[in-house]
Structures are given as structure tokens and as C-alpha cells.
Amino acid sequence: MTKKKKPSSQQELLTIIIPTKNRPYLLNRSLRYFIQAEISTKIIIIDSSDGLLLDKTKLIYNDFCVNLDIDYCHVDASMEYSNKISIAADMVDTPYSLLVGDDDFPLKSTIEELLLKLENDKSIVAAYGERVAITQINEKAQGFKWVKSYTNYGGISITNSNILDRIRRLPIPVWQQYPNAIIRTTPFKKAYQMVKKLDYTQYSEFFISSYILTYGKWVKFDVLFTVCHQENKFCRFKDRYLFTHYIGKGGSVLDGVSQDKWSKTVSLLCDIVGRKISTSCSQDMSNKLRTIYYSKLVYYLEYNIMLSNNLIDSNRVILRAINNVFRKISRSYWIIVLYDKSGGIYEFIKFFLNFGKEILNGRFIKLVLNSTTDINIKGLLISIKRTGSLKYEPDSLLHNSSKYYKEYQMIFNTWTDNPCPQRLEDVQK
């Protein structure tokens, strides 16, 4: 019996999956960065491009496979996203998987750091860090005032010992939790196998994450994990037609739950994930999971869309105003009770403490007065709330005192040298 070969580096433990469709320019830029950053993981490109853009994507693969360990797989342009990812996941033979966009730049040092944490703590099923976005806000000019950067999501660590309690902490929409984490491959594969024959929706994401959480903790570390490309009017590459079932006409959760198959699909997924949970507690958990999902959904819809206002006659201005007052009071109540929600009471306390630190250390004032990229006070406050500090702002990261100085500078220069301002419809011509 031959012994399994031990990986010579942490990176050999990981496979990076890059789904793409009709975005060869963004893919080209990302792969160029992978070479420059010396990211040596296995890479799987799962491509659903068509027409001329398929030919361009294949040429890019042929160019980069010489210097990168890439497997390329093309699937039909009409294939559902979940099925697409499931096919790629089945190709993975490493212990860990990382799903990234074709416009993302993961940091090599953080990949290695998170892999080490996963190797040393088997209770962690998924690990991630902060995600910083870069976007173009006006015509390219001298200096960097045409560039805007900000922390993408908040996200939390989900470390409860009870499985249902871990699922209770998942946000809706679940992308706030940053699903592009380093995940153990076995639950990653099984989660996407569960939804591969279904329309990919926002509730699909909830149950994918729920299934993964049945295996352990989902931990957010205070590290810069990924820098991503953010859509703007100067760069409209988003393939929104890819996710017709996901975003609907308006791109909202309400559109998602208005689909014909919604209730049936949710029940199916509750049963699948519920059975997985039941194996560890000998109880039927499907109904409990269903209750949790619907409760979170109703809370989200009322909190964000003010559903109750739609039950008041249009001419009842006073009643509507009274309802809005009670809704604000209710929000204050939920801030205390749902401590883990964005805006929860503990989050407020942490925010004010961290804001005070950034004032005292002078970084807040310095960035307001001397930022090289476009920035505003509101954006800085959001960054403090999401990350606890301003150390992930571009001027902080580009300073040689930053832990990520060299890596971020490489990414920043790669992006600013080639922001890919072409629109998808122009590229297709």
C-alpha cells in the first residue's frame, strides 16, 4: 500500500474554482495576477461562454496553462449556476476548495494562513477574512480620485456548538456572510450536489451555507482575504442574465420568493438539510429548519421592505406614519434581542469603541483630509462598522507599515493599470 504523498506547501491543499461566462478580459487580468502573486494552487476554470467570447476564453486558458496548474471545463451557456459549480466541485481532489469570481484577487499570504488554521482546528469547516472592493467612479485621470475602494461585506463568525443555532445566525441574503470562503471539500461538494438540479436562487444559497454549517464552524478572521472588482457605470460586465432565477426582474429577495417553485423547493431543501442534521440528534429537524428559514425571511422582508405599510390604505397618511413609528420602535427592540444582527447592540458598542480608537490614533482624520482615492466620511464609518478599523482602506494598505503592503500594491496596480472599462455588450460585438 503506497503512502499518500504529503503536500510540499499549504497551497497544495487547495483548489480554486473560477466560474466564468463571457468575461475573458476580467479572467485574463485575474490569471495574470495569479502568476505575479505566485499562487500555485490547482485552478479549475468552469466556463459557460459562447460565440466569439468562448474562443477568446479558450485562448486565455491556452496562454496561462503553461505557467499555472489549470483544468478547463466548458459547459453549455444555459446551464444553471448551481449545476455548473457542482461539476467543478466534482473535479476537486484536494482537502479544501475556494470559489472565487473571475474578477477576484485572493491574497497568497492569507490563503496560506487560513489553510494552516483549518489544518490545526478540525472544528472549522469554512474560513474567510475581509473583502475589499475596487471600483471606477468617473473617467480615468491623473491620480486616483477616479478609484473608489471599500470593504464589501460585514460577515460574522458562526461558532455555536448547536447546529440549528449556527444556522440561525446566517443572514438573508446569505452573500453577506461571504460564501467565497475556503471550505472543506467534502461538505462543499455535497452542498452543491444538493441544489445542482434546482434553479439557483437566494434561498439556494441559504441552504448551501446551512448544509456546510452542519459540519462545523464558519469563522471570519481579521485578515485581508480578497480584493474584488466592483461593478459601476464605467464597467458593466455583470452577467445578470446568468441568474434570472436568482435576481428576478428587480434583483430582490421578494422577487425570489415570488417564483412559482419557491415553496416547493424550500420544503425540499429543508428536508435534505434537516435529514443531515437529524443524523446527529435522532430527531426530525426538517420542520425546525423550515421554521427558522421562514422566520428569518419574514424578519428580513419586514425590516427592509416595510411589508406592513402595504396593508394600509393609500390615503391613510396618519396611520402609515403611526405604523412607521412603531416599526422604528420595533427595530430598537430587535437590536437588543438579535444581538448578532448587523446593527445589533453589541455591534453598536464595538463600533463606537473602534471609532474612538480611529479618532485617537489619527487615522480617521488623516484619511478624511489626505486620501489619494475617492473617499467620504460615510464610507469610512461603514468600514469601521464592518471591519473594526480603517486598516483596510487603500491608503492604509498602500502604506509600507501595512502587513499587506506588497500584495495589495500588486493588486491595486494590476487593477488601475487595467480597470476593464468595456461593457459586456461592447465586448460581444
Name of the CATH first level of the largest domain? Alpha Beta
Largest sheet: 10 strands, mixed
Shape: globular
CATH H-tier superfamily of the largest domain: Spore Coat Polysaccharide Biosynthesis Protein SpsA, Chain A
Q: Tally the helices: what do you get?
A: 18
* Helix coverage percent: 40-55%
Count of folded domains: 3
CATH architecture of the largest domain: Alpha-Beta Complex
Give the topology string: H per helix, E per strand.
Answer: EHEHEHEEHEEHEHHEHHHHHHHEHHHH
Point out poorly predicted stretches.
1-5
Compute the number of strand runs: 10
In the CATH hierarchy, the third-tier topology of the largest domain is known as Spore Coat Polysaccharide Biosynthesis Protein SpsA, Chain A
Please state the CA-atom Rg, rounded to the nearest Å.
22 Å
Overall pLDDT metric: 86
The N- and C-terminal alpha carbons lie at a distance of: 56 Å
Specify the structural class. alpha/beta
List descriptors.
single chain, 429 residues, alpha/beta, Spore Coat Polysaccharide Biosynthesis Protein SpsA, Chain A, ten-stranded mixed sheet, 18 helices, 10 strands, 15% strand
